Amino acid sequence: MSGPCWPIRGSHAFTAPELARLREGVWPRDMDDRWAVSLQDNTLRCWRSWTGACIYEALVVEGDDGRGMVVLVNVLDDPDTYSRALTEESELDRFEGVVALALSSEDA
């Protein structure tokens, strides 16, 4: 992520299969797909597909059982690139919506 960011504590939990899916990455196939999402090591990144801007970088801590927990979400805080929500709760809802959309894609 380049530019200023807004760090927010997270608490989103992932199952082991969800983490495996995110490691494979979810990539746009056409213009209607607005997000690219990928987990590399312990960082989950969500990019806007049209601009290539990384909007979210989340730190994921993985347990011994293969499940994971988001403990921190860095949100791009550059109004020229992204209009973030006014509250942490609203922005976390947006982040979780992006991740849910990625996990529910046809390839999932």
Account of the protein in words:
- The chain is α+β, with helices and mostly antiparallel strands and 108 residues long.
- Helix content is 23%, strand content 34%.
- The chain is built from two helices and six strands, in the order ββαββββα.
- It has helices at 16-24, 88-103, and strands at residues 5-9, 13-14, 35-40, 43-48, 54-62, 68-76.
- Strands 1, 2, 3, 4, 5 and 6 form a six-stranded antiparallel sheet that branches.
- A hairpin with a 5-residue loop joins β4 and β5 (54-62).
- The longest helix is centred in the last third of the chain and has 16 residues, at 88-103.
- The radius of gyration is 13 Å and the shape is globular.
Terminal-residue CA separation: 25 Å
Overall 3D shape = globular
**How can the largest sheet be summarized?**
6 strands, antiparallel
Structural class: alpha+beta
**Quantity of strands, as a count:** 6
Number of helices: 2
In round numbers, the mean pLDDT is: 91
Stretches where pLDDT is under 50 for at least 5 consecutive residues are none
Query: What's the alpha carbon Rg, rounded to whole Å?
Result: 13 Å
Helix content: 10-25%
Q: Please write the string of helix (H) and strand (E) elements.
A: EEHEEEEH
Q: How much of the polypeptide forms β-strand, as a percent range? A: 25-35%
Task: Spell out the key features of this protein.
6 strands; single chain; 108 residues; alpha+beta; globular
What's the short version?
With 108 residues, the protein is of the alpha+beta class. It has helices at residues 16-24, 88-103; strands spanning 5-9, 13-14, 35-40, 43-48, 54-62, 68-76. The model has no long low-confidence stretch (mean pLDDT 91).
